[in-house]
Amino acid sequence: MNIFRFAGDMTHLFSVIVLLLKIYATKSCSGVSLKTQELYALVFVTRYLDLFTDFISVYNTFMKIVFILSSLSIVWYMRKHPLVRRTYDKELDTFRHYILVVVSFVLALLFHDRLTTKEVFWAFSIYLEAVAILPQLVLLQRSGNVDNLTGQYCLFLGAYRAFYVINWIYRYFTEDHYFRLIPWIAGLVQTALYADFFYYYFLSWKNNAKLQLPA
């Protein structure tokens, strides 16, 4: 564990807390993509298949459980809660996310570290996480205005991945034989997808204006 990975974990956790607070406090999921949340739930469930077989540390196990339960909770709120589900922007959240699932699974079958069920699903989760934010970004572009909590949620998610990229670079120079091409490439792709959002978030902060993404 180094400071960059810890910072990545904490910003990831903050993003989930911000989104849960938004939904719970306002009883609204307006501006939130259900399809992105379903993709993240699938990411965590498939990545942490080793939850009850491989123990690394209490911290590691705790974080796995938190991310699985929180992602499933968000999906439940958006699909089943009688008040929250009425605020879901279904007409704007039309990204065909199943295409991302299929492509990620094909990539996992073709490019993986070892041909085992656990490793293939791990690679699948890495590929899928890299593009899971796409439905959310498309929804925000279509809606135009972005409320503060949704904007902060996306900001923390982007920061989480940026910290993890720095973590991989740090480990490459400080640990012997540390080289994992799959998460490196996927992480860079995911960070690049946030570049446009970061740019407009910075402009809104600089001008003290409401965050707006171009259609």
What are its keywords?
215 residues; mainly alpha; protein transport; ER_ret_rcpt; receptor; ER-Golgi transport; transport
Give, in order, the helices and strands. Answer: HHHHHHHHH
Low-confidence stretches: none
- Number of individual domains: 1
Total strands: 0
Count, helices: 9
Strand content: under 5%
Global Rg: 17 Å
Distance between the termini: 40 Å
The rough form would be described as: globular
Keywords: Endoplasmic reticulum, ER-Golgi transport, Membrane, Protein transport, Receptor, Transmembrane, Transmembrane helix, Transport
InterPro entries: ER_ret_rcpt
Transmembrane segments: 56-77, 98-115, 121-140, 152-170, 182-202
Membrane topology: Multi-pass membrane protein
Please give the structural blueprint:
Layout: H1 3-26, H2 34-47, H3 58-80, H4 97-110, H5 117-131, H6 134-143, H7 148-174, H8 181-193, H9 195-206
Helix pairs in contact: 1-3, 1-7, 2-3, 2-5, 4-5, 5-8, 7-8
Task: Give an overview of the whole structure.
The protein has one domain. Helix content is 71%, strand content 0%. It is built from 9 helices and no strands. It has helices at 3-26, 34-47, 58-80, 97-110, 117-131, 134-143, 148-174, 181-193, 195-206. It starts with a helix and ends in a 9-residue tail after the last helix.
